TrEMBL record:
GO MF terms, alphabetically ordered: 2-oxoglutarate-dependent dioxygenase activity; iron ion binding; L-ascorbic acid binding
Taxonomic lineage of the native organism: Bacteria, Bacillati, Cyanobacteriota, Cyanophyceae, Nostocales
Protein name: Oxidoreductase, 2OG-Fe(II) oxygenase family protein
Protein residues bound to Fe cation: 96, 98, 156
The species this protein was found in: Calothrix parasitica NIES-267
Swiss-Prot/TrEMBL keywords: Dioxygenase, Iron, Metal-binding, Oxidoreductase, Vitamin C
Top-rank lineage group of the source organism: Bacteria
Swiss-Prot/TrEMBL GO biological process terms: DNA damage response; intracellular iron ion homeostasis
Entry annotated with the keyword Flavoprotein: no
Cofactor(s) recorded in Swiss-Prot or TrEMBL: L-ascorbate; Fe(2+)
Binding site residues for 2-oxoglutarate: 166
Fe2OG dioxygenase domain ranges (all copies): 77-175
Keyword Plastid in annotation: no
Amino acid sequence: MILTIENILSPEELDAITSELKDAEFVDGKLTAGWFAKKVKNNTQLSGKAEAARELRTTIAKALQRNRLFQAAVKPKIIRPMIFSCYSSGMYYGSHTDNAIMGGEKPIRSDVSFTLFLNSPSSYKGGELVIDTSLGEQAFKLEAGSMIVYPSTTLHRVETVVEGKRLAAVSWVQSFVREPSEREILFDLDTAKQVMFQKHGKTPEFDLISKTHANLLRKWAEV
């Protein structure tokens, strides 16, 4: 399931993040790429040693915690620390699949990847995130503060930035529910349950859907 989520960040949070990134230290993006991805990765990213890194990551982590749509769709168990990437003119990230296992002492399995766009799409040309799907390639270039989440199993790339700068935060999630198809079923049931409650309140039908949702989560969740 590929899902776009608007307004992950408030305007104030977005302004604070972009202001911090304006004068921050960026390093070669190849430093965090797998051996095969290094050959196609051409961007820069905020240094992990930068003073602002921890604070910016905390801001986004809190935003994800309060976003009900993200929580319902992704079922996050562990979220890797965000990487803040910058693509200047001529930079790109060629076709690749994210590493299945990430991290050192506390590794996680990457189930879901996400890209949080941090600047306006009108401020740069190119830089689309292109994901290979069963319906063919789909390109995404979202408004600042909006996010796309997608299975880490997919082939994807970032098109060459022709003009301007593309700023984004990216990370990976180990979900409580490993299988994408099972996460989608749970998300659909949860969505139907919420709509039913809003329209009709707590009915016997609502209780049945709630029971089914809870029992499937109990069956599939890895805790």
